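Hi P.,

Sorry for the delay on this. The queue was packed all week, but I finally got your sequence through. Input first:
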Amino acid sequence: WLALGGRPLRNSRLTLGTGAVAVILLSVGAGLGFSSLVGVPLTEISLLMVFVIVGVGVDDVIVVVDFLQRQPPHLSIVERISGALGGAGPAIQLTSLTNLIAFLIAATVDFPGVSYFCLSAGFTLFALFLLTTTLFTALLTFDERRRGAMRLDCLCCIGFGAGDSETGDAEPSSPSHKEDDKRAHSGLRAAVSSAARAYDCFVASKPVALVVILAFTSLIPLGFGFAIGNIPLGAELASYFPDGSPYVAYTADTQENFVALDTPGYLVLRDVKWEDASAQTAVDSLLAALESDDFVIAPYSTNNWLAAYRAVAADRGATASAAPPLRQSGDGFLADVAAFLKETDPQCVDRQLGGECLREIIPARYSKEVVWAGEAGASPITATRFSCTLAVPDEVKGRVELMNEHRATADANRGSIDAVVWSYFMLFSDRDRIVVRLLLQ
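Then the structure:
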């Protein structure tokens, strides 16, 4: 920001630099919005284009300002900006066109993830070129007028001494330079040069610059209201592999024959008084409500330490076992749970009529799913985790929506229990939700 101008607050361009950053960010939003209109999904790879756009955008801004500073100081503001764009415009146009063609060619590869990235980057680079030659030019015009009027950067209502100004709004001392330029060119080159100068003078005029700024600013809520809401989140599994990948074919056959992919889901419970029978009953009711969701294919109630503990306790109560009995609630319950979770020998939980064991469990495998406040058995259980298996679609957006539905079921039935359901694909979604909440605060 300071390097683009000069003396801080007098000839610096802090406000213009902030505007340049806004132009770059708006180009990203415009590119993603156009991508959504043509059905290009937003994937994790597509987000990497931000680094490319920032590099190209900053380079374009520096080139334009550098050409402006090389203009003769006796020219008017309109003529200086016109000359700056006349010199920097072809370079920006050619580089933008070259990058656009390169990305569009790269979008023809048979790797859909890379193709989506190249299409989004190409659209965004095109939007960046348009915004640089219109919106940034308008901002640059107002900044030059601010410097010409000898007003402070960021505090344009405050002026400063004429001796500190390096620019002005003086008219050219030799108005015949335009005629010299016309005589120096001929044919197609003269026509292109004349058209470029006419466009630059048009864009650099104060009324047009004001209209351009207001027009692009008014498009911001429109983009958030319509385009951003229609961006497809995530992509098909096949988008991350080359066309004809055997893994994609295997996954497609698996989904077709076995209905859906499955993934582990977790119910995290905190600060539950497990020794209280009524608290256990409330947890059982919550589990029954969660398992009523039709996408739960392996319920919570069959894969948690409490179910295993109850099964072993029932078996010991029904047989003449030498092992000590396990209390279901009340005093001593937590101590029995701690001792149970330390047992590494298989425990029978299902027997035939003749006493032969049909199913065994190892209590110690559940020990990592229980967190104690202090010493195990002598302190309360602060948190615990129950596991299940969920049938989920292969799209990221579908998985997030499914988990949000599962969370809504938990919130509607948990009562006073501190509980949350979670799965690994909610990691980034939860992170972004927390970040947005902190920013709003």
